[in-house]
Amino acid sequence: MVLLEFTSPGPIVFQVGGFVLRWYGLLIATAVLLGVSLSQFLAQKKQLDPDLIADVAIWLVLAAIPCARIYYVTFQWRQYQNNWSEILAIWHGGIAIHGAIIGGTIAAIVFAKIRRVSVWQLVDLIVPSLALGQAIGRWGNFFNSEAFGSPTNLPWKLYIPPANRPPEYIDSEYFHPTFLYESLWNLLVFSLLLWLFRHSLNKPLQAGTLSLTYMICYSIGRLFIEGLRTDSLMLGNFRVAQLVSLSLILIGSFGLAWLYAWKKQLPDVAPATQNS
Hints:
- With about 280 residues, the protein is mostly helical.
- The chain has helices spanning about 25-45, 50-75, 75-80, 95-115, 120-145, 180-200, 210-225, 240-260, and strands at about 5, 10-15, 20, 155-160, 175, 235, 240.
- It has eight helices and seven strands.
- The strands form three sheets. It has a three-stranded mixed beta sheet, with no helix packed on it. Strands 2-3 form a two-stranded antiparallel sheet. Strands 6-7 form a two-stranded antiparallel sheet.
- The relative contact order is 0.13.
């Protein structure tokens, strides 16, 4: 019995002459716009300047997207070393969220230092939007028929056209819809972060709590979902995303223990306000 069968209609929304609107770009743009609006709303709830979010968003986009692409290309260099023109073809897919997080983190630290605001308090306002954006953005993988899992006969499955199948699975038609698994997981993480944020309006949390919770919860889901994928970025015999996820789980857990077990503040570029 088939409960859900996904088949991509293709990567293009519409094309008029030389103008092509692709689902991948549209979804990323939608995620950014929704994320900025949501984080500004959260900032207002915390009685913080929402213009900070609009300003840092520019920094984040300018840093996160190129770093996400560089990260992906670095671990897939054999695919690009003889095809340099494809390195900039981000609309074909091929960005890595961990690269985006690295770039975005650096940008947020520099921005917070310049504006003399708490980087942890700033990132706490951003991570719910990040989780929501990831839930939206994963559907770009669906439209591009990429980032899917191993073959499956489960009642829910994803059809992959022959041109997009790995050579070893050329005779398989249906695969795990890992884009869906991660999208749903990110929605759960998003819901948890919003719940914690709402709780913090009545009983303030330590600055960095939401950021560390995101690191742990997203990474737990990614750790298991990555094990199903057929296109993982590899470092020797190890899946890079799983190594990074394990590291983030450990860092996040240590950070929460630092805040609540040892009752110490996280290192920061500026003191957090009292309404965290």
